[in-house]
Predict the 3D structure of the following.
Amino acid sequence: MILDDIVEKIKNAKDIVILTHEIPDGDAIGSSLAMYFALKQLGKEADVIIPEFPATYSFLPGVEAIKKRSNILNYDLAIALDCSDIKRLNGFANYFENAKSKIEVDHHSSNTMFGDHNFVNPVAPACAQILVTLFEYLGVEIDKNIGTCIATGIITDTGGFKYNTVTAETFEFIAELLNKGINISDTYRKALQIVSKKKFEITKIAVNRLEFLENGKIAFTYITKEEQEKLELDVGDHEGIVEQGRDVEGVEVSIFLREEEENKYKASFRSNEYVNVSDICLMFGGGGHFHAAGCTVELPLEQAKEKLIAQTKLYLK
Ligand code: 5GP
Ligand code: MN
Protein backbone atom coordinates (compact mmCIF):
# COMPACT_ATOMS: atom_id res chain seq x y z
CA MET A 1 0.00 0.00 0.00
CA ILE A 2 1.21 3.45 -0.87
CA LEU A 3 1.16 4.77 2.70
CA ASP A 4 3.25 1.80 3.88
CA ASP A 5 5.76 2.47 1.10
CA ILE A 6 5.97 6.12 2.10
CA VAL A 7 6.42 5.27 5.79
CA GLU A 8 9.17 2.80 4.92
CA LYS A 9 11.01 5.28 2.70
CA ILE A 10 10.85 7.99 5.34
CA LYS A 11 11.98 5.70 8.14
CA ASN A 12 14.97 4.44 6.13
CA ALA A 13 16.12 7.74 4.66
CA LYS A 14 19.15 9.64 5.97
CA ASP A 15 19.17 12.78 3.84
CA ILE A 16 15.76 14.13 3.01
CA VAL A 17 14.83 17.15 0.91
CA ILE A 18 11.40 18.80 0.88
CA LEU A 19 10.39 20.67 -2.28
CA THR A 20 7.31 22.52 -3.47
CA HIS A 21 5.99 24.46 -6.44
CA GLU A 22 7.29 27.75 -7.84
CA ILE A 23 5.71 30.99 -6.61
CA PRO A 24 4.75 29.11 -3.47
CA ASP A 25 1.45 29.90 -1.75
CA GLY A 26 0.26 29.24 1.79
CA ASP A 27 -0.47 25.58 1.10
CA ALA A 28 2.92 25.03 -0.51
CA ILE A 29 4.88 26.62 2.34
CA GLY A 30 2.57 25.42 5.12
CA SER A 31 2.73 21.83 3.85
CA SER A 32 6.51 21.97 3.47
CA LEU A 33 7.06 23.24 7.00
CA ALA A 34 4.49 20.84 8.46
CA MET A 35 6.44 18.01 6.85
CA TYR A 36 9.70 19.46 8.17
CA PHE A 37 8.39 19.41 11.77
CA ALA A 38 6.82 15.97 11.33
CA LEU A 39 10.15 14.53 10.18
CA LYS A 40 11.89 16.24 13.10
CA GLN A 41 9.51 14.43 15.45
CA LEU A 42 10.57 11.19 13.79
CA GLY A 43 14.20 12.08 14.46
CA LYS A 44 14.95 13.17 10.88
CA GLU A 45 16.55 16.45 9.85
CA ALA A 46 15.28 17.50 6.43
CA ASP A 47 16.22 20.38 4.14
CA VAL A 48 13.32 22.54 2.99
CA ILE A 49 14.35 24.26 -0.24
CA ILE A 50 12.23 27.24 -1.28
CA PRO A 51 14.26 29.93 -3.08
CA GLU A 52 11.69 32.70 -2.65
CA PHE A 53 8.41 33.03 -0.81
CA PRO A 54 5.96 35.84 -0.01
CA ALA A 55 6.78 37.78 3.17
CA THR A 56 3.17 37.18 4.25
CA TYR A 57 4.20 33.71 5.37
CA SER A 58 7.13 34.83 7.52
CA PHE A 59 4.91 34.32 10.57
CA LEU A 60 5.00 30.55 10.08
CA PRO A 61 7.00 28.51 12.54
CA GLY A 62 10.11 27.04 10.91
CA VAL A 63 10.60 29.67 8.18
CA GLU A 64 14.12 30.30 9.47
CA ALA A 65 15.03 26.76 8.45
CA ILE A 66 14.09 27.31 4.80
CA LYS A 67 17.09 27.10 2.47
CA LYS A 68 17.53 28.68 -0.93
CA ARG A 69 19.70 25.85 -2.23
CA SER A 70 21.71 22.88 -1.04
CA ASN A 71 25.14 21.37 -1.63
CA ILE A 72 23.79 17.84 -1.42
CA LEU A 73 23.24 16.52 -4.92
CA ASN A 74 21.91 13.06 -4.24
CA TYR A 75 19.45 12.96 -1.37
CA ASP A 76 18.21 9.58 -0.13
CA LEU A 77 14.70 10.86 -0.37
CA ALA A 78 12.94 13.80 -2.00
CA ILE A 79 9.40 14.74 -1.00
CA ALA A 80 7.49 17.09 -3.32
CA LEU A 81 4.44 18.77 -1.79
CA ASP A 82 1.50 20.55 -3.44
CA CYS A 83 3.16 20.26 -6.83
CA SER A 84 1.30 18.86 -9.81
CA ASP A 85 4.11 18.61 -12.28
CA ILE A 86 7.89 18.21 -12.10
CA LYS A 87 8.25 21.32 -14.31
CA ARG A 88 6.77 23.39 -11.49
CA LEU A 89 9.38 22.35 -8.91
CA ASN A 90 10.78 25.80 -8.62
CA GLY A 91 13.61 25.13 -11.06
CA PHE A 92 14.82 22.61 -8.47
CA ALA A 93 13.71 19.46 -10.23
CA ASN A 94 17.31 18.21 -10.14
CA TYR A 95 17.09 17.57 -6.37
CA PHE A 96 14.01 15.49 -7.04
CA GLU A 97 15.34 13.67 -10.08
CA ASN A 98 18.67 12.84 -8.44
CA ALA A 99 17.17 11.52 -5.22
CA LYS A 100 17.23 7.75 -4.65
CA SER A 101 13.54 7.71 -3.72
CA LYS A 102 10.88 10.16 -4.80
CA ILE A 103 7.62 10.78 -2.98
CA GLU A 104 4.96 13.29 -3.88
CA VAL A 105 1.92 14.33 -1.89
CA ASP A 106 -0.52 16.49 -3.80
CA HIS A 107 -4.15 17.42 -4.45
CA HIS A 108 -4.16 18.73 -8.05
CA SER A 109 -6.45 16.88 -10.45
CA SER A 110 -3.92 17.57 -13.22
CA ASN A 111 -1.13 15.81 -11.28
CA THR A 112 1.23 13.95 -13.62
CA MET A 113 2.27 11.29 -11.05
CA PHE A 114 5.96 12.13 -11.38
CA GLY A 115 7.20 10.43 -8.19
CA ASP A 116 7.95 6.77 -7.40
CA HIS A 117 5.23 6.97 -4.75
CA ASN A 118 2.40 9.37 -5.49
CA PHE A 119 -0.03 10.08 -2.67
CA VAL A 120 -2.48 12.23 -4.61
CA ASN A 121 -6.01 13.02 -3.56
CA PRO A 122 -7.65 15.37 -6.08
CA VAL A 123 -10.69 15.97 -3.89
CA ALA A 124 -8.70 17.22 -0.91
CA PRO A 125 -9.06 21.01 -0.57
CA ALA A 126 -5.38 21.43 0.31
CA CYS A 127 -2.23 19.39 0.29
CA ALA A 128 -1.99 20.23 3.98
CA GLN A 129 -5.21 18.31 4.65
CA ILE A 130 -3.76 15.17 3.03
CA LEU A 131 -0.78 15.47 5.35
CA VAL A 132 -3.08 15.01 8.34
CA THR A 133 -3.85 11.46 7.16
CA LEU A 134 -0.21 10.78 6.41
CA PHE A 135 0.95 12.09 9.79
CA GLU A 136 -1.59 9.91 11.59
CA TYR A 137 -0.20 6.94 9.71
CA LEU A 138 3.35 7.95 10.61
CA GLY A 139 2.43 8.33 14.28
CA VAL A 140 3.27 12.03 14.24
CA GLU A 141 1.49 14.14 16.85
CA ILE A 142 -0.01 17.34 15.50
CA ASP A 143 1.58 19.90 17.81
CA LYS A 144 1.31 23.70 17.71
CA ASN A 145 3.93 24.15 14.97
CA ILE A 146 2.54 21.48 12.70
CA GLY A 147 -1.03 22.59 13.42
CA THR A 148 -0.34 26.22 12.51
CA CYS A 149 1.36 25.21 9.25
CA ILE A 150 -1.46 22.87 8.30
CA ALA A 151 -4.14 25.40 9.21
CA THR A 152 -2.38 27.94 6.97
CA GLY A 153 -2.43 25.54 4.03
CA ILE A 154 -6.10 24.75 4.50
CA ILE A 155 -7.16 28.36 5.12
CA THR A 156 -5.33 29.73 2.07
CA ASP A 157 -6.28 27.00 -0.41
CA THR A 158 -9.95 27.11 0.58
CA GLY A 159 -10.07 30.91 0.37
CA GLY A 160 -10.89 30.97 4.08
CA PHE A 161 -13.18 27.87 4.13
CA LYS A 162 -15.39 29.24 1.38
CA TYR A 163 -14.69 27.00 -1.64
CA ASN A 164 -16.80 23.97 -2.42
CA THR A 165 -13.67 21.87 -1.99
CA VAL A 166 -14.11 22.09 1.78
CA THR A 167 -15.10 18.76 3.33
CA ALA A 168 -16.55 17.75 6.69
CA GLU A 169 -13.07 16.60 7.71
CA THR A 170 -11.76 20.11 7.06
CA PHE A 171 -13.94 21.45 9.88
CA GLU A 172 -13.39 18.40 12.07
CA PHE A 173 -9.70 18.94 11.78
CA ILE A 174 -9.91 22.68 12.43
CA ALA A 175 -12.02 21.87 15.51
CA GLU A 176 -9.27 19.55 16.69
CA LEU A 177 -6.71 22.32 16.24
CA LEU A 178 -8.87 24.73 18.22
CA ASN A 179 -9.08 22.14 21.00
CA LYS A 180 -5.30 21.99 21.02
CA GLY A 181 -5.14 25.76 21.53
CA ILE A 182 -4.06 26.79 18.04
CA ASN A 183 -5.14 30.32 17.25
CA ILE A 184 -7.15 29.88 14.04
CA SER A 185 -8.41 33.44 13.84
CA ASP A 186 -4.89 34.86 14.20
CA THR A 187 -3.58 32.42 11.57
CA TYR A 188 -6.47 33.34 9.27
CA ARG A 189 -5.75 37.05 9.56
CA LYS A 190 -2.01 36.70 9.01
CA ALA A 191 -2.30 34.20 6.15
CA LEU A 192 -5.23 35.66 4.29
CA GLN A 193 -6.27 39.15 5.29
CA ILE A 194 -3.33 41.44 5.88
CA VAL A 195 -1.98 42.92 2.63
CA SER A 196 1.20 44.92 2.16
CA LYS A 197 0.91 48.47 0.81
CA LYS A 198 2.61 47.43 -2.43
CA LYS A 199 0.13 44.63 -2.88
CA PHE A 200 -2.70 47.06 -2.35
CA GLU A 201 -1.23 49.46 -4.94
CA ILE A 202 -0.76 46.82 -7.64
CA THR A 203 -4.28 45.53 -6.99
CA LYS A 204 -5.59 49.06 -7.52
CA ILE A 205 -3.87 49.25 -10.92
CA ALA A 206 -5.24 45.87 -12.01
CA VAL A 207 -8.75 46.64 -10.79
CA ASN A 208 -8.75 50.00 -12.56
CA ARG A 209 -8.13 48.45 -15.94
CA LEU A 210 -10.28 45.37 -15.41
CA GLU A 211 -12.71 44.83 -18.27
CA PHE A 212 -15.80 42.70 -18.65
CA LEU A 213 -16.26 40.71 -21.85
CA GLU A 214 -18.83 38.31 -23.27
CA ASN A 215 -21.81 39.94 -21.58
CA GLY A 216 -19.93 40.21 -18.33
CA LYS A 217 -19.15 36.49 -18.11
CA ILE A 218 -15.41 37.03 -18.47
CA ALA A 219 -13.37 39.46 -16.39
CA PHE A 220 -9.94 40.30 -17.76
CA THR A 221 -7.03 42.29 -16.43
CA TYR A 222 -3.22 42.34 -16.39
CA ILE A 223 -0.15 43.99 -14.91
CA THR A 224 3.05 44.87 -16.77
CA LYS A 225 6.64 44.14 -15.79
CA GLU A 226 7.27 47.88 -15.60
CA GLU A 227 4.48 48.34 -13.05
CA GLN A 228 5.79 45.49 -10.96
CA GLU A 229 9.30 46.90 -11.04
CA LYS A 230 8.18 50.42 -10.27
CA LEU A 231 6.38 49.29 -7.15
CA GLU A 232 9.28 46.97 -6.27
CA LEU A 233 6.84 44.15 -5.75
CA ASP A 234 7.79 41.21 -3.62
CA VAL A 235 7.12 37.68 -4.69
CA GLY A 236 3.44 36.85 -4.30
CA ASP A 237 2.21 40.46 -4.23
CA HIS A 238 0.02 39.75 -7.26
CA GLU A 239 -1.83 36.95 -5.47
CA GLY A 240 -5.51 37.62 -5.07
CA ILE A 241 -5.84 40.01 -8.04
CA VAL A 242 -7.59 37.36 -10.13
CA GLU A 243 -10.20 36.98 -7.41
CA GLN A 244 -11.23 40.62 -7.74
CA GLY A 245 -12.75 39.91 -11.16
CA ARG A 246 -14.12 36.53 -10.14
CA ASP A 247 -16.21 38.04 -7.36
CA VAL A 248 -18.18 40.43 -9.53
CA GLU A 249 -21.79 39.49 -10.13
CA GLY A 250 -22.34 37.63 -13.40
CA VAL A 251 -18.69 36.73 -13.96
CA GLU A 252 -18.02 33.06 -14.64
CA VAL A 253 -14.32 33.20 -15.56
CA SER A 254 -11.73 35.69 -14.35
CA ILE A 255 -8.40 35.94 -16.17
CA PHE A 256 -5.36 37.78 -14.90
CA LEU A 257 -2.10 38.13 -16.83
CA ARG A 258 1.18 39.05 -15.21
CA GLU A 259 4.02 40.02 -17.53
CA GLU A 260 7.09 38.00 -16.52
CA GLU A 261 9.32 38.97 -19.42
CA GLU A 262 8.74 40.74 -22.69
CA ASN A 263 6.11 38.73 -24.58
CA LYS A 264 5.78 36.21 -21.75
CA TYR A 265 2.75 36.22 -19.47
CA LYS A 266 1.78 34.08 -16.52
CA ALA A 267 -1.98 33.58 -16.66
CA SER A 268 -4.20 32.93 -13.65
CA PHE A 269 -7.71 31.62 -14.17
CA ARG A 270 -10.62 31.39 -11.75
CA SER A 271 -14.19 30.24 -12.35
CA ASN A 272 -17.31 30.40 -10.25
CA GLU A 273 -19.62 27.61 -11.34
CA TYR A 274 -19.42 25.45 -14.41
CA VAL A 275 -16.22 26.20 -16.35
CA ASN A 276 -13.33 23.84 -15.70
CA VAL A 277 -10.44 26.28 -16.01
CA SER A 278 -7.90 23.51 -15.55
CA ASP A 279 -9.03 22.13 -18.94
CA ILE A 280 -8.52 25.55 -20.54
CA CYS A 281 -5.04 25.90 -19.03
CA LEU A 282 -4.06 22.37 -20.05
CA MET A 283 -4.52 23.52 -23.67
CA PHE A 284 -1.71 26.02 -23.01
CA GLY A 285 0.60 23.59 -21.20
CA GLY A 286 -0.57 24.53 -17.70
CA GLY A 287 -3.09 23.01 -15.32
CA GLY A 288 -4.52 23.27 -11.82
CA HIS A 289 -7.98 22.66 -10.40
CA PHE A 290 -11.54 22.95 -11.69
CA HIS A 291 -12.04 26.47 -10.31
CA ALA A 292 -8.40 27.70 -10.13
CA ALA A 293 -5.71 27.11 -12.70
CA GLY A 294 -2.83 28.72 -14.54
CA CYS A 295 -0.49 28.58 -17.51
CA THR A 296 2.26 30.54 -19.23
CA VAL A 297 1.77 32.14 -22.64
CA GLU A 298 4.69 33.37 -24.70
CA LEU A 299 3.03 36.01 -26.85
CA PRO A 300 2.55 39.79 -26.87
CA LEU A 301 -0.27 40.98 -24.60
CA GLU A 302 -2.99 41.46 -27.22
CA GLN A 303 -2.38 38.07 -28.80
CA ALA A 304 -2.15 36.30 -25.47
CA LYS A 305 -5.42 37.90 -24.41
CA GLU A 306 -7.14 37.01 -27.68
CA LYS A 307 -6.05 33.36 -27.58
CA LEU A 308 -6.99 32.80 -23.95
CA ILE A 309 -10.35 34.49 -24.36
CA ALA A 310 -11.16 32.62 -27.58
CA GLN A 311 -10.53 29.32 -25.76
CA THR A 312 -12.52 30.43 -22.70
CA LYS A 313 -15.52 31.42 -24.84
CA LEU A 314 -15.87 27.79 -25.94
CA TYR A 315 -16.68 26.82 -22.37
CA LEU A 316 -19.27 29.50 -21.62
CA LYS A 317 -22.97 28.70 -21.57
P1 5GP B 1 -2.53 30.71 -9.39
O1 5GP B 1 -3.46 31.33 -10.35
O2 5GP B 1 -2.90 30.99 -7.98
O3 5GP B 1 -1.09 30.95 -9.70
O4 5GP B 1 -2.71 29.13 -9.58
C1 5GP B 1 -3.97 28.50 -9.43
C2 5GP B 1 -3.79 27.01 -9.45
O5 5GP B 1 -3.32 26.57 -10.72
C3 5GP B 1 -2.78 26.49 -8.45
O6 5GP B 1 -3.29 25.31 -7.90
C4 5GP B 1 -1.55 26.22 -9.25
O7 5GP B 1 -0.83 25.18 -8.71
C5 5GP B 1 -2.10 25.89 -10.62
N1 5GP B 1 -1.22 26.42 -11.66
C6 5GP B 1 -0.90 27.72 -11.88
N2 5GP B 1 -0.07 27.86 -12.92
C7 5GP B 1 0.16 26.60 -13.39
C8 5GP B 1 0.96 26.06 -14.47
O8 5GP B 1 1.64 26.77 -15.22
N3 5GP B 1 0.94 24.71 -14.61
C9 5GP B 1 0.19 23.89 -13.80
N4 5GP B 1 0.24 22.57 -14.03
N5 5GP B 1 -0.56 24.36 -12.79
C10 5GP B 1 -0.57 25.69 -12.58
MN1 MN C 1 -2.44 23.53 -2.78
